[in-house]
């Protein structure tokens, strides 16, 4: 066979070769690269036998701390079972990370695949078409997000905080049912900070794992002696509800301009565009969560109650 024929076979071999991932003896064919974060890569895959589609999250660990975080993420999936929190269908952990010999380890999480994408995707499409959701529709979706968050805050043996709630971390299943994803930032909710070193450590973790436009003020500038609790998530919920109404978090614009998000968050000067069809009740609900002082912020139970009250008022006016 001539060299041209051989080269064609090799080329065809490359085209036909299907990259696969195996998790606990189950083989998945990689169909698409869905996304990448600082710590992980997500693939759209297909079960090689049933052809059902899934998402696989691959976390590469470069050291013992990375390993601990990846294993903890798998454990949190086992603790948190709720219709509005993403389910981990299967998982595996292989290897030992050792930076001295440049060895890495790998965690693989098999997750459901949601073809509708994220709430951020939905809002981006709506923004382009200037297509607002009705207030009742927004609050119906938001209430389900809150119910998912409540499961974190009620976790046993200790309350958990998601710490990176944002529209890009909320998937939408059919019927626009919100599903909270990415448990990589989840941590014990209540942290007693004692000293400047502990404050700096928490600040560094937040800078690494909590997205700026949704990050609570107390995580930008952690005081040396303080208590940080689950109300970091309440701030993020306020930003999410604002984004659902106005297409972006109140601090997205600041971030996109390249101005200081930390300063904007600390001042919490929230404005509402008058051209948008949302009344004072919705604005009050948003502002109740965006209190700079975390002690003035409601817990998730009060947020849910306030959402129910706002829905009742809106329905009364229909």
Structural summary, described in words:
- The protein has about 325 residues and is α+β, with helices and mostly antiparallel strands.
- It has 11 helices and 12 strands.
- Helix content is about 40%, strand content about 20%.
- A 6-stranded antiparallel sheet has the order 1-2-3-4-6-5.
- The chain is globular.
SSE arrangement:
Layout: H1 3-16, E1 20-23, E2 26-36, E3 40-47, E4 53-61, H2 64-79, E5 90-94, E6 105-112, H3 119-128, H4 135-153, E7 160-161, E8 170-173, E9 177-180, E10 187-188, E11 191-194, H5 196-209, H6 217-220, E12 225-228, H7 231-246, H8 252-257, H9 261-267, H10 280-289, H11 300-317
Coarse morphology: globular
Low-confidence stretches: 6-16
Strand order of the largest sheet: 1-2-3-4-6-5
How many helices? The count is 11
Annotated CATH homologous superfamily of the largest domain: Transferase(Phosphotransferase) domain 1
Helical amount: 40-55%
Strand content: 15-25%
CATH architecture of the largest domain: Orthogonal Bundle
Radius of gyration: 22 Å
Average pLDDT? 91
Q: What's the CATH topology label of the largest domain?
A: Transferase(Phosphotransferase), domain 1
Number of strands: 12
Largest sheet: 6 strands, antiparallel
Q: How many distinct folded domains?
A: 2
Distance between the termini: 78 Å
Describe this protein with a few key phrases.
single chain, alpha+beta, Phosphorylase Kinase, domain 1, Transferase(Phosphotransferase), domain 1, 2 domains, 11 helices, 12 strands
Brief overview:
The chain folds into two domains: 16-112, Phosphorylase Kinase, domain 1, CATH 3.30.200; 119-317, Transferase(Phosphotransferase) domain 1 (Transferase(Phosphotransferase), domain 1). Helices cover 42% and strands 20% of the residues.
